Amino acid sequence: MIVHAGSLGDLLLFTGALRVLREHFPEDRIMVACRQEYVDLIRPLPWVSGCLPIPTDWQRTGWFARVRRWWMRHNIISRNYDRIIHASYMADDYAHGICRAMRGGKKFWYEVPSAPDTGWYDVRVKVDERAHELDKYAALVTAVCGGGPVGRDAVRPDLCLTPEERREGRGSVERGTWKVKCAQHMEGERPREPSGSLTGWTGQGREMDGTGDLTQPPAPRGYGAPERLRSFDRTSQTRPESNARNVAPEEVGMGDGSVEGGTHASLRSYAGQALNVEGGRAWRVAVCAGARFAQKDWGVDNFVQLIRQLAVKGPLQVVLLGGPEDRERHAYIRKGLSGCVAVEDFAGKLTPRESAAVIGACDLCVGNDTFGLHAAIAVGTPSVVIMGGGDYPEWVPWGDPDRHRMVVHVMDCFQCRWVCRYGDNRCVRKIGVEEVVEACRRGLGSVERGK
């Protein structure tokens, strides 16, 4: 039994470890217990025998919650297992409680100095707290399998999308009214620049602790925790000066960020290359503008300006991906792009695997540090991620650096666990639109149109 109560992106990164476990235990039944909304991501994998959903409301009161808890005890806790693997490095009390209540053989977890008393684990795997998540999974799999060391390459994630899923993903981005708009553009009708700026809403994140104070850590994502959306004040969109330094362009795929006449110079020089139409269609760009919590949010206005600049020199098809909580955010992005670019909004309409299939049908995926960017690497779509420093470098892109780029401003306060000493998460908000445009330009240059 494998218990993984982490986030969606964390669970995606664990798919490669599941493959290695199947290779070492070909005859065993490998069961995975994860959040019920993530079951769709894991259940179709060929290495998994079954997937058990952990009810998201198991901590609530009332008769329905009691039924849920009974179901969890009957289907997860009361069974006997040969091995119990707790895969989440950053785990809360409820996940530990499930593992503690399970019966069976050895129980595996990590050696985490800051964790509470977890003496019920038989094997504690020692890893560097700042190591990449894939390296942690490799160390955990090495301890479970008992053989030689397992490297990061062995646990590379894989969603195993079927040909049918990929065809459906391509169909999703090809359907809709945007074909007409792009056809008009390809015939010479340039998209007009919307007048004015997007006002009244500048960014949102899930407020887990009810305070909205960026100097406080995000509250644990325990089931039953409030997930209210909030808006930043206009002042949180400013980019104050700091002691930040830019990572070298060759490290993160950024240009010089020069601006000439209000238009990115390198984008204009790129007019005859990536963003013009050759082959009969526009570039398809998936945008993941959501953020699991406020500290990772680059800001909706930045995404609007990013897409506008990418659309200046040629037709662009934009796919907005996210959950139901991103609908308000996407509505403002669509408003800001009205008359400028064709947009298809899939907020809350797709399962995780369907979202990955749609990303696989695009030429580029750009967004905050979230599930979509990890999915892009898994399905082979070039990506650009806006990266903050709260847990850097544990979640940096793990694919080919020539195809999967990050834009990051390294600061001396990195590894703050999202407790911002400045109160304005400037490691994310100080990243300029021009830098991301340049990274996207290079990402689009790494693929051929019509894939």
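That was protein one. Protein two is written in the same sequence-then-structure order:
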Amino acid sequence: MSLIGEARAMMRYIEQAWNRGCRAALLTIANVQGSSYRQPGAKMMVTSDEVMHGNLSGGCLEADLREWAKKAIKDGEPLLKGYNLSDTDVWSLGIGCKGSIEVWITPVNKENCFWKVYQDGINKNKHVSLIAEIPSGAKLLLDENKNTLIRDGDVPEELIEHEHNTSLYHKKTNTIVYEGRQFLIDPINLNEELIISGAGHDAVPVVELAAKVGFDVTVLDPRETFNNMDRFPKASHLVKDPEDTDPTRLAKKWWVIMNHQQLRDEACLKLAVNSQAQYIGVLGPLKRTREMLDNINQNFNDGPIHAPVGHDLAAETIDEVAVSIISELMAVRGKRSGQSLHGKQKIHN
């Protein structure tokens, strides 16, 4: 899948390249067989003056990809570059990842209004999907209702409804073959929205780390001296009083409740339970959470409540506690157990 934060960052770097008079290419993993460091949808960019941002491997492919990207920029034509990572002697780097990947490399020209529409969509936090013939680069962009926003070249819209095209519905990047032509289906997935209830000192690393791993974070706390952008520069929104906020902004979100003040915790816990939350993590002892649920006439069956919040990492400091909390959020988001990878044959599947 493609993460909107990564796509947004790559387009921002590409725009910076345009502004300094350079050209750029966008690189997307189109297909993976076996083991790979990144999965389909992962992105990086390369400019004509050899600036790179992003990564598609652990550092073993980027130098070669830069050269192929420069070729695509120079020729003005997209290309598909494949790598067999099973060979331990690839470029004498001893990679041996036991897999193969294909990377679609396409020039992103300032003059092509397709990329302006693409950038506008992701900057406005819209769920858009790119469908591109590979390697030719004929493409179209769809909105969340599968309406065509813009077309650049010959892409049959009928393939959207094609019985083999499940990528759009499952929001996964994939390649399909339709009428003898290969297409990249690349839905841009929106970030999950996380509400941190409490703006204490221990909330600072939680907000920072959550933003780094792809959550859009709202901090909820009535205390202006604590709840401000100086303390939470990575937060997308700051809310002092939920009653002053559109209720839909708080509905179906992820919550971490860490006010360290029981009445505020109870109020926020009740709000979270009644908002069809996707996840509710409560900091503090299990006994305290049970007491709060009793006080608000709720129970653990009334919502996806995780208490105490976090993974058992022997966390002590506020930074360690933040890692514990965010690691559990990532595991739940990715539908994973959160257990050690030791002995696991496949990491991503």
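The first strand starts at residue 2 and ends at 3. Keep this in mind for the problem set.
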